[in-house]
């Protein structure tokens, strides 16, 4: 496989074939994200993609494919359908194709487009929601507002595609911590995703967020402030059926819970950890990572 630059994927795609169909991110303006800043966005040629699929056809037991890099759904519909068809031809045992997407690229697709992508094999989409606060969405330069984010998430759900959203603990800093937690609970309720992953913000040199931190314009919540946000989001969200996790390497307290079934027990456990204030119950700083 001929990868260009750093390749990332969601934790749940750990055993998937990583097929790079674009390089970089079509948006690439989020203040907290360093991932694609060194890459120029482009859509790979059909020949490049087919060459990688020809190699992958010799691999054993490929059941899932994840489309890299940051936003494969920005690819024009005919080309994206062709890529999905090529995957089926090259990997006849494939069960699921997944992709990152941003709200703007989803909203460029019609509901019929999304249903066609589902029929062609796209079964999972990962959407970075980050926060439900309108002010914070603008501040971190997500490029969309709350209503657009909700619309994008619901379009994926309505097409029958599994939706996994990401939210960022701490992205409101200390000043807007509670606003961030409560507004994020509201947007999660409105989108009602199949999966939610809560990550914890780690400020990376070279990002605008780092510059804000260095200038004193941004200050992260303390360790138990992150947990307060997590508990608030879970307590105030109303899900139909969502698998909620905070088991990313950035998180202090790993959580895996089916909501709403395990909601009360999960919130009670988080509150008890906060009450005890025992850092020995948390992931050590030395083991936290992006």
SSE map:
Elements: E1 17-20, E2 22-23, E3 42-43, H1 46-56, E4 64-68, H2 77-90, E5 96-101, H3 103-107, H4 111-119, E6 122-130, H5 134-139, H6 146-158, E7 162-169, H7 177-191, E8 195-200, H8 208-214, H9 223-236, E9 242-245, E10 256-259, H10 263-276
Parallel strand pairs: 1-4, 4-5, 5-6, 6-7, 7-8, 8-9
Antiparallel strand pairs: 2-3, 9-10
Helix pairs in contact: 1-2, 7-9, 9-10
Tell me what you see in this structure.
It contains ten helices and ten strands. The chain is an alpha/beta fold. The protein has one domain (11-283): Aldolase class I (TIM Barrel).
Briefly summarize what is shown.
The chain has one domain (11-283): Alpha-Beta Barrel (TIM Barrel), CATH 3.20.20.
The sequence of SSEs as H and E is EEEHEHEHHEHHEHEHHEEH
Helix content estimate: 25-40%
CATH class: Alpha Beta
**What's the gyration radius in Å?**
19 Å
What are the main properties of this structure?
alpha/beta, 8-stranded mixed sheet, 290 residues, TIM Barrel, 10 helices
């Amino acid at each position: 496989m001929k990868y260009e630059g750093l390749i990332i994927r969601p934790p749940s795609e750990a055993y998937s074939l990583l097929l790079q169909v674009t390089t970089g991110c079509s948006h690439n303006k989020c203040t907290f994200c360093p991932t694609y800043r060194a890459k120029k966005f482009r859509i790979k040629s059909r020949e490049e993609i087919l060459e990688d699929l020809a190699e992958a056809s010799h691999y054993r037991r490929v059941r899932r494919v994840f489309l890299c890099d940051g936003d494969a759904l920005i690819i024009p519909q005919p080309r994206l359908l062709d890529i999905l068809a090529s995957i089926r031809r090259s990997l006849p045992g494939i069960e699921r194709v997944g992709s990152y997407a941003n709200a703007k690229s989803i909203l460029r697709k019609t509901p019929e487009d999304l249903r066609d992508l589902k029929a062609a094999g796209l079964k999972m989409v990962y959407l970075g929601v980050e926060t439900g606060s309108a002010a914070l969405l603008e501040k971190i330069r997500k490029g969309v507002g709350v209503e657009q984010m909700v619309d994008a998430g619901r379009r994926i759900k309505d097409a029958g595609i599994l939706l996994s959203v990401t939210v960022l603990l701490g992205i409101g800093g200390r000043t807007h911590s509670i606003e961030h937690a409560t507004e994020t609970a509201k947007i999660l309720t409105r989108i009602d995703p199949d999966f939610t992953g809560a990550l914890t913000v780690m400020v990376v040199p070279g990002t605008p967020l780092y510059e804000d931190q260095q200038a004193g314009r941004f200050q992260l919540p303390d360790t138990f402030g992150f947990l307060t946000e997590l508990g608030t989001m879970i307590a105030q969200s109303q899900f139909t059926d969502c698998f909620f996790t905070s088991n990313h390497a950035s998180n202090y307290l790993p959580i895996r819970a089916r909501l709403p079934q395990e909601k009360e027990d999960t919130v009670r456990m988080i509150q008890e950890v906060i009450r005890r204030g025992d850092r020995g119950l948390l992931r050590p700083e030395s083991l936290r990572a992006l």
